[in-house]
Design goal:
The chain is 23% helix and 41% strand. The N and C termini lie close together (12 Å). The longest helix is centred in the N-terminal third of the chain and has 19 residues. The chain contains three helices and five strands, in the order βααββββα. The chain is elongated, with a radius of gyration of 15 Å. The protein is of the alpha+beta class.
Length: 126
């Protein structure tokens, strides 16, 4: 599991006084990309990019400007050029949103789908 700290900015708050649902998407994208950059070897990070193919977000509770929030990311599995992640957005021990996402790995030069080496995949999925 990888933990990503989230900062809530005044611009994240919508007309109802809580974090806008669209902001959660940015949080998940930031968390998954940071997970990749921290865990993968530097040469793999330089050689690959990620694009999101699908996000499925279940909102459980609202979050507010002063909340302390984190995203806990787990790589569920990797298959071919795709990676499947589960992310729990938490306020303390309370899960406020659950996100399942699918990402595609790209070669950073050609921008074409690319498979990761097994030793890189093993850093995320044993």
């Amino acid at each position: 599991m990888f933990r990503h700290t989230i900062g809530i900015a005044p611009d994240d708050i919508d007309h109802m006084g809580h974090v806008n649902n669209s902001v959660y998407l940015r949080w998940v994208q930031d968390a998954v990309v940071e997970y990749w950059e921290k865990i993968a070897p530097a040469d793999a990070v330089a050689a690959h990019l990620w694009v999101a193919l699908k996000h499925e977000i279940t909102y459980l509770k609202p979050t507010f400007l002063d909340d302390l929030v984190v995203a806990d990311v787990i790589a569920e599995h990797m298959q071919g050029v795709r990676a499947y992640f589960n992310t729990a957005i938490r306020r303390g021990e309370e899960v406020v949103a659950e996100v399942k996402s699918v990402w595609c790995c790209l070669d950073s030069v050609t921008k074409r789908p690319a498979r990761l080496a097994k030793e890189v995949v093993s850093r995320f999925v044993p």
